[in-house]
Amino acid sequence: MNIKKPFTKIKKRYVSFLNRRPHRSFRRTRRRDYVRSLKLPGYISFTNYVIRTIWNNRKIFGLLALVYAVLTALLVGIASQDIYSTLTGTINSTSGNLFSSAIGQLGKASLVFITTATGGISQSLTEAQQIYAVIILLITWMTSVWLLRNILAGHKVKVRDGLYNACSPIVSTFIVALVFIVQLLPLALALIGYAAASSTGLLLNGVEAMLFWIAAGLLAVLSLYWTTSTFFALVIVTLPGMYPFKALKAAGDMVVGRRLRILLRLIWMIVITIVMWAVIMISTIMIDSWLKGLWPAIAWIPTIPIVLLVLGSFTIIWVSSYIYLFYRKVVADDADPA
Fold this sequence. Notes:
With 338 residues, this protein is mainly α. It folds into three domains: 65 residues, no CATH class; 94 residues, no CATH class; 81 residues.
């Protein structure tokens, strides 16, 4: 056995990594050495492009959202109407005349929205239901990417084709998703630290609070730094014959010199999603409360849980479409690493 062979491979990988990633830790990189082109349409223009792409294929993506909603309702379940009724009843009984005005009704609906959106009316899931939820999410993600890839290639596709053909890399996608979760651990640690600091009163003291927020901010930045490329890796890994860590390497090379601009686009996607949820859910909550106030006999209808399920289905399609189309725009600008 040649002892030098493993070390030679390691050295080649290290040299290749340095060539692909020209930046060095604790060394200043001059601006001329890290500027990398990335020609993209404006934020609003690109968002409209994603919306048009989904709308032009609304039958396909609408059917996919329906499949996701049905599978989720059957295997995972939906939010509890009883818990929602108890929540709204408690707010009404304890608020007095606080929400009597029109602005007060809007504030009440916003409060209910925040509670429902953060899982306040969701029932605790069993281990089997959690596994089903992850599998359904991954299948919907891969199917959306497969459909978009073939639609943009000019092929005529059906949802059935996507469900049958897109799920082959589910193991590779699951591995990349696990890496994504691991990369979120610093952010999770910061959130746990915030909960502990709040309960102990640490944030009330100036110096301790400042040190905590500095540490929490650095942990959050670390998670954002890592996950920026992993979003693209979740797309790359769906390519035929692609291995998960090869996809992670390719995605990492793709964002070198562009990471901040790519991150800002992803943050814009999250902001648009939150605004969409707020507008739709707050309007639905206000209309639902008004109708059930006029006709108490329909109070049993789980309007809000159903809207949550449908909105969640379309959100997954929207996010996967945005990231895939954004990935194509970045790939189109094949500038050298900077």
